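::Encoded backbone::
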Amino acid sequence: MSSRAGTTMRCVGTGFVALDIIRSALDETTILERRHAGGSCGNVLAILSYLGLNTLAVGRIGTDGAGSELLADLRSCKVDVRFLDAEAGRRTPIVIQETYTDSRGKARHRFSRACSVCGATMPGYRPLLVGGVPEVAAALPPHGLFFFDRVAAGTLDLARRSRERGALVVFEPSGIKTESLFLESLRVSHVLKYSHERLSGLDALSNQVKVPLEIETLATKGLRFRMRGPGQAAAWQHLPAVTALSIRDSAGSGDWCTAGFLARIATHQKSPIAGLEDAKVVFGGLQFGQALAALNCSYDGARGLMYTMSRTQTLKATEQLLKRGVPILPASASPTFARDRSGQECIVCT
């Protein structure tokens, strides 16, 4: 990866930034627990930083313990958090992920917004305040990429301002709440990426606003994409999945794919936006993202790979995987801590 990505390219992201609490059963009485920054936006920014880009998060969290853990982890990943507003008296978004083995012996994961002990609902996402966007936009450093995964008036305003400054805008929704706002999000975006498992049948909307690059991930079947640049036919093209060496936890695969693609397109000799018109760049970037996603499946959590392998090791393993080689992956790092399953302490709410 060229030095240009690591020294001058920056990605600003806003949307779902949360504390991920990843829990897996070690045995009948002990649960392993890891706590890392997460949410789609948080993961994409942390992974891009790991891959050598400068990244900056914009959003609202709380001054609680979860917020402190979230900020500490993002800082350790070298994500700029000065625009993550820690609001007094507010709680930080939390997502609980449980990994388990099903009756067929396959690794599975499930997400929850409720405490597994007391049942309390965990805090959720709070959108940017419209009134504060002009000040934030004026203070943001130059950036060539802008990522968002939630639709709100303030977010759209910030995305428009970044686009006007020349940034490539990437929209990765998880759902459609208000169709009018969703269409506005498409109009401000250069790239639309979504999961078939969460969103499908978007043709009626995406055909109204022809985003230059549309990507639909298809889980184990890979992904498909279509380019709508000048002189391009806009036909769907399919990319098969890169086979994972092992499946320990597939959470975060989409985030790795997104970050890998953006890291590659950020190195385009002219600009990321110009890179969208180059089929080879798009194809190569998506394959790179798929390979990263496949590697991460061997570890617990949405970003387990980051805590086990250096960037140099990961890039080498990715290259080997794309060449159909079999890289040797190190074992997962030690868990953060273990808890007695029989205990009644409310492990999240406290």
